Amino acid sequence: MVAMLGSRSARIALVVGLLFLAVGAGLGAYQYLTRPITLTVAGGSVDGEVVRALSLLAERVASSKTRTRLKVVDTATAIAASEALAKKQVDLAVLRPDVGDLSAARSVVLITHLTAMVVVPAGSSIKSFGDLNGKVLGVVDTEVNQRLVELLVKEYGLTRAGFQIKDLTPAEARQAILKKQVSAVLVVAPLTQRYLTTLRGLVPPGAKQQPNIIALDSAEALAAVSPQYESFELPKGVFRTSPPIPDDTIDTIRVPLFLAAHKDVPEELISDLAKTIMNLRQELVSEVPGLVQISAPGADKDPPIQVHPGASAFFQGSQTTFFEKYSDVLFYGMMIFGSLTSLWAGARRFMEFGPPGPTTNPLDDLHALGARIRAARDDHDLVAIEDEIDQILNRELQRHGNGDAQATETGALSLAASRLEHLINFRRQSLVPAGASQPLA
């Protein structure tokens, strides 16, 4: 008995240990699948505004219910951000379609548009961009705007001797105009109050005349040959001054600014990120008004930056449903659950829960009782046999009630028990002496 209990205890310990191991593995797999995933995002600008906006976005994403997290990498310039994404040093970057290598970039959302504005001081004789031939054009952040400047120079034929490009920072632009080191300043910036205030400060008004913004009257032609750019009508009075600057609607060009991902970032992550950003849009705009243009990256046939498949799935409403996404997991999960159920049934038998079951077929036990009935010497022996029959039947019926698949069919048990009952009655009659009355049943 002690040996049997020791063996059963060892089996129980083994099964319980395996159960804890399986539960631990399941919990580990769940934690791994639901762990936060951090994506690095690069950005940079001469005024640091891009990094500020990205930091706000990272904070809001972290406080949302999504498992995606953003880590901001300040690259100081848009060129460095583009290079970092191209080299796969980061997962995301804020990009202009006219800056850097974009072969691996895929757009996620449109952040804003940067508008090209050529500002001339009060009293200037320059009325069009072509009038800058032979003069000095100041450009804020020439390195980032190099492709745009080259396009303008070529379009307007600014090849006369004396024409120069002077690179300026925002802080240097005002002094360059006041000291007449430049005849005009090209600024590419979003049309937000913050940037317009800075721009107004670059060119102070004269005694009787106001500074002005000159038109790029070839804007449509420029956009046609360079899809990175869009023609745009700059509204009258955008400077919010009196009298209005410009004094009428003028043509210019603008360039979109995207949040883009490396093409190898999984679709599911980008789809969830795009959804999170759009859900947070109002919160972001309330703190950074320049983000008011956050929207889908566009549905052009030939977009300046190809749209990431994950972003496209979100904006087109073609995201996979829960059952589509996890159909294989559910299918194999049900198979595993069925296997575990069978293993548990086997473990129960292995641990011998409850009283030990019969080691022989109950039909064999019932058949063996036939010989004992024929050899019974008195009614006491027959009563003992009847008790054994009842025990066998009760045990098998309990196994049926517990769903034991190995329990003997009740029809076979009933047939065997009926035969034994006839044998008992016959043997009981044969044991009654001749002339004696048979006891009442």
How is this fold's topology laid out?
Elements: H1 2-33, E1 37-43, H2 49-63, E2 68-74, H3 78-86, E3 92-95, E4 105-120, E5 136-140, H4 146-155, E6 164-168, H5 170-178, E7 184-189, H6 193-202, E8 212-214, H7 219-225, E9 230-234, E10 250-262, H8 267-279, H9 281-287, H10 309-315, H11 322-325, H12 327-351, H13 362-374, H14 379-401, H15 410-431
Helix pairs in contact: 8-10, 13-14, 13-15, 14-15
Describe, in plain words, how this protein is organized in 3D.
The structure is a single chain. Helices cover 47% and strands 16% of the residues. It is built from 15 helices and ten strands. It is rod-shaped and about 150 Å long. It has helices at residues 2-33, 49-63, 78-86, 146-155, 170-178, 193-202, 219-225, 267-279, 281-287, 309-315, 322-325, 327-351, 362-374, 379-401, 410-431, and strands spanning 37-43, 68-74, 92-95, 105-120, 136-140, 164-168, 184-189, 212-214, 230-234, 250-262. It has 441 residues and is an alpha/beta fold. Mean pLDDT is 83; it is low at 1-5. Strands 1, 2, 3, 4, 5, 6, 7, 8, 9 and 10 form a ten-stranded mixed beta sheet that branches. Among the domains are: 108-319, Periplasmic binding protein-like II (D-Maltodextrin-Binding Protein, domain 2, 3-Layer(aba) Sandwich), CATH 3.40.190; 362-431, no CATH class. Helix 4 links the parallel strand 5 and strand 6.
